[in-house]
Amino acid sequence: MRQITEQYVTSIAPNPAAVKNAKKISSSGGFVRLYASADDTFYMGECTGSGSSNYTTSADFADPAKPVYRCSCPSRQFPCKHSLALLFEMAAQKKFAPCEVPEDILQKRKKLEAKAEKATAKTEEADPAAPKAPPKVNKAARTKKLKKQLEGLDMTQELVNGLLNTGLGAMGGNSSSSYRDLAKQLGDYYLPGPQAYLNELVLEMEAFRKDADTVHYTRAAGILARLRALLTKSRAYLNGKLESGDVGDDGSELYEALGGVWKLDQLQALGLKKENAQIMQLAFNIYYDEARREYIDTGWWADLETGEVSVTCNYRPVKAVKYVKQDDTVFELARVPILTYYPGGLNRRIRWEAAEFVPVTGEHLAQLRAKAATELSGIVKAAKNELKNALSPDKIATLVRFRRIGKNEAGYVLEDPAGHTVLLDNMPGSEDTARRLSMLPDKNALENQVLLGAFYYDRARQRVCMQPYSIVTEQDVVRLMY
Length: 482
Prior knowledge:
By secondary structure, the protein is of the alpha+beta class. The chain is 37% helix and 26% strand.
């Protein structure tokens, strides 16, 4: 029988309520008949429902990366609770009677295959070696948008120049409302990126006025520096595109930093993709970005072939949170036919349309462990160079092999096989993962293992530290951030 886990079923569910209802159907004996094909590609069940007749639901795994779920019920949710319940029956290893794949399913498979072959043939006829053509761009509309963005950048630059001349103290008192109003206006100039920085600035200075903690002032100064760098680089970038007349997509990180939203076909047309990737999630967390007013579900993934660490980000704005499904921790290995990357340096963001999830084995763990860096010196240098970029993320995650993790007067310290060390601590505002090192039941996890950790610059200590996310052993992944 095909291996299905409850975690996988939960991951494809449209919402938590569908999972709850599906479990109820499965546990209460809602299925009166269960069938499975001999080739393990087709599963079907007959389930009682609210209607006068039973519902027929099926799961077709002809393409394991893109399973097709069908049900005769009238629900508009996809997959519906009956489809999810069928998967829970599979996860529970219930007994499925043998059956042939129904003729209507075979016909539907043929139609899907014909559609895929037609699309492939069309691509090959054009030029099999040529990259996919980028989506067409409305040049006039894009030019108008770029000019509007430049107007907004000029307006923001005046504000930044004023703060640099008078100091951040100018944001005190009643002036906060005027800065908030300006931040709202930036939305009319297609600049949600600078808008978010300005909102962060206001929030930090308001916090500073409340408790006089200099940490807020220091953070505000850092945000102002990032905003200034974004304005400088963005103005040069936009002016260059307007002068050259090439207003199309070019893979610049500034596109998203200015608030642009990438589509998968845009990124793939730029060559930002990898075929047949195998990736494993090693850490996961959810945090609330008050400046952007959205929840961000973040997963940290490692590529088994290269060891590259990438991230998935699922953005859930407060005003639409009930319509956007929350991501969750993934414990299986993801086999992704086409993995798409966003522009960036280290820890690029990734997305995909379809994937097959399989249990993680010792062989997978060994393959991943072999890709970890064996010396801190090289990866610390690379992280420092990335952190120096004002527009880069404020943390850089990587895999490193360590001889031991111990504790001294400063806290936990990681020592690599060459004897080099780095202090392990929590990045300000993050989860207390360092403390969880003391809670590990098996202390062997602190010797001769591989750590996924994030480098960050500790302003108080004036040094680069590392926050531990997870430990990859020969048998398992010990998550400190999950």
